[in-house]
Design goal:
Structural class: alpha/beta
Largest sheet: 8 strands, parallel, barrel
CATH architecture of the largest domain: Alpha-Beta Barrel
Radius of gyration: 20 Å
Low-confidence stretches: 1-6
Strand content: 5-15%
Helix content: 40-55%
CATH superfamily of the largest domain: Phosphoenolpyruvate-binding domains
Number of strands: 8
Shape: globular
Strand order of the largest sheet: 1-2-3-4-5-6-7-8
CATH class of the largest domain: Alpha Beta
Mean pLDDT: 95
Number of domains: 2
CATH topology of the largest domain: TIM Barrel
Oligomer: single chain
């Protein structure tokens, strides 16, 4: 198989396991709509996360908590339509799986059937073990999420780095081993010390995806709006901004307004 064809081979959970085994880093970004997902997938991203961060960057909410299951399915449908290569993972939103395993299964089945996504993601370890197990028994791949778990922000009371103390670090390692044991295919590690993230990544056989967890995880994820500079009021230490689309878009709109008000748009060539 040629390099080009291999580059655009469909990413599966099995392929991610192979990437960890060979030391190939895994790239992951969020996506919430068709147009951006098509661009990102075409660039060769490995995983697209339809994140509940849509609550923040798409709807302007302070936290991820307000977004509903219907909202997540709507965003996921748009992303799946755009994708030909990436693995599409969808966050199960707050309140749609923590209550009991039956609700978790219903929510996950709806996401998979109605959006066509490839996997779901749920936050937490031992606390949500029963829910994750039931979803996995139904044949739905689950990505775990440990460390700073945004759906529990009011419990934490802060977005500061998690698991700096020994007790919390040990629990995180225990939860990671548990998630691997029950069958999760990958785990996001958010905003934890890099040494702990490296330890966990070496401890478990499934891939780890870091965000604010150093460079010794098996992959990295960022929120697309943050890394492209669309959002301007969120600049944590772990964020690398690869573009300043806020300025590019703002300048373009100002130019358009000027042309409209000056009668320069549309021109004769742009008219029928």
């Amino acid at each position: 198989m040629s390099t080009a064809k291999n580059q655009f081979k469909r990413i599966t959970t099995h392929r991610l396991q192979e990437m960890k085994a060979t030391g190939e880093k895994i790239s992951m970004l969020t996506a919430y709509d068709y147009s951006m997902a098509k661009i990102i997938d075409g660039a060769g991203i490995d995983i697209l996360l339809v994140g509940d961060s849509a609550s923040n960057v798409m709807a302007g909410n302070e936290t991820t908590l307000p977004i509903t299951l219907d909202h997540m399915i709507w965003h996921a449908q748009a992303v799946v339509r755009a994708v030909s290569r990436a693995l599409v993972v969808v966050d199960v939103p707050f309140g749609s799986y923590q209550g009991n395993s039956s609700e978790a299964l219903r929510s996950s089945i709806r996401i998979m059937k109605e959006s066509g996504a490839h996997a779901v993601k749920m936050e937490g370890g031992l606390e949500v073990k029963e829910s994750i197990e039931r979803v996995l028994r139904a044949g739905i791949p689950v990505m775990g999420h440990l460390g700073l778990t945004p759906q529990s922000i009011y419990k934490f009371g802060t977005y500061t780095v998690r698991a700096k103390e020994k007790e919390e670090a040990e629990k995180l390692k225990s939860d990671a081993l548990l998630l691997e044991e029950i069958g999760c295919f990958s785990i996001v590690l958010e905003k934890i010390p890099s040494s702990l993230a490296a330890n966990v990544s070496n401890l478990i056989r499934i891939p780890t995806i870091g965000i604010g967890a150093g460079n010794r995880t098996d992959g990295q994820v960022l929120v697309m709006h943050d890394m492209l500079g669309i959002t301007q009021d969120f600049k944590p230490r772990f964020l690398r901004q690869y573009a300043d689309l806020n300025k590019v878009i703002g300048d373009a709109v100002e130019h358009y307004i000027k042309d409209v008000k000056g009668g320069e748009f549309p021109s004769e060539e742009e008219s029928y």
